[in-house]
Amino acid sequence: MRRELLNKQSSEIQGMFGRIAHRYDLLNRTLSLGQDVRWRRAVARRVAAIHHPRVLDVCTGTGDLALTVGGGVVGADFCLPMLERARLKARRLRRPLPLCAADALRLPFAEATFDVVTVAFGIRNFADLEVGLGELVRVLRPLGLLLVLEFSRPRGVMAPLLGWWVRHVPPRVGRWLSGDAEAYDYLPASVSTFPEGPTMCRGLESAGLTDVTVRPLTGGVASLYEGTRPAEGAR
Fold it and tell me: In this structure, which CATH number among 3.40.50.460, 3.40.50.150, 1.25.40.80, 3.30.360.10 belongs to the domain 3-228?
């Protein structure tokens, strides 16, 4: 795997997702054994608890999370082939989904625009995590909610089996289904170096969020983080 990709250079990440856009949904369902659908529904339920929120889904990809969440969502991504897949999917489902080509590190929205910001399986690809988190918080309204769904390293009794799956199955199956070996070698490598759990929670707090929590999903294969932007004048 090229060092440029491991170092998360934006152009390399953008190109990688563009190459696998045509197989991305199939690979997600196959490699997670369908669990990715349940994980996104967990995010959608959390959003549904908020009355008529205006939602920004960053790294929206093919639009799976945005379409699961429902109305009032804007999807943003810097990979045009992914956005085209999202557009076609929304049209096929006859669902409105405004889409925006945007880099998560330079979001083209005014401060305090959204009630909720969501990111599913994209934040570990940020070239600069601190800058990216700052942008997500910036576009949140006071008392707005950030929800981050991301892969993590499994814990507990099933950890050895789940860890083996994450390390070995995605690269093999990914090569076969997508024809892109590098993209699915990158997946376990990026998960292994991502600051998960308490470390990620501290990063969210450093970005200015309060009431930060993390909830492991499916034995810790994925984790759902959330935090709130404080009210104006609060510390």
Answer: 3.40.50.150
15: its two tokens? 């190109």
Beta-carbon neighbour count of residue 205 at 10 Å? 13
| Residue 166 to residues 32, 36, 156, 187, 218, Cα–Cα distance (Å) | 9, 14, 15, 8, 12
Please give the pLDDT value at position 137. Answer: 98
C-alpha span between 173 and 27 (Å, rounded): 8
Question: Which residues, 6+ apart, have CB-to-CB distance to 23 below 8 Å?
Answer: 177, 178
The Cα–Cα gap between 54 and 116 comes to 6
pTM value is 0.92
| pLDDT under 70: residue ranges of the chain | 1-2, 4, 6, 156-159, 162, 166, 170-171, 174, 177, 233-235
Domain boundaries defined on the chain: 3-228
Give the list of residues 6+ apart from residue 33 with CB closer than 8 angstroms, or none.
none
